[in-house]
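Q: Got a minute? One more chain.
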Amino acid sequence: MEQLTTTYTVKIECGDIWQFKYNLNGVLIHFNVLAGDLNERHSDWLYIKGKFPYLESHIKKWQKDLKQLTIEVGEADFSFESLWNLYGNKVSRFDAEKTFKKLTTADQIKCFLAVPGYKKYVARKQIATAHLATFINRQYYNDDWSKAN
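A: Always. Here it is, folded:
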């Protein structure tokens, strides 16, 4: 299941490049070494000394405090196209896009946050997925899908 992430690419003076991806709740969901090797010194610093940024707030602190690192941020894409792809039930696009554009930015973000829980709920209950326009119009994004029966 695709989900929106914020990506931080960390370039270290020795040439190594690390990538950290966080979900919309600021929790690490992916760590990758893009260039170089995770050597013993780096591994010790990250894991033994407890510097591993498992929360997005940790890597933001790195940005502020660790000037020897170059950190580039790729922000999450909150466009309708991104929601359309995340939601997956690609029916009635025109209506869904029209209603999405009327939402406040906060409600648009709530839509993205609610989709994974809603998808799990639909799978657990073995019911049909509502059209995205219905999901938006009926404000399903305000429901707590993790606690829904």
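A: The first strand starts at residue 6 and ends at 12.
Q: Perfect, thanks.
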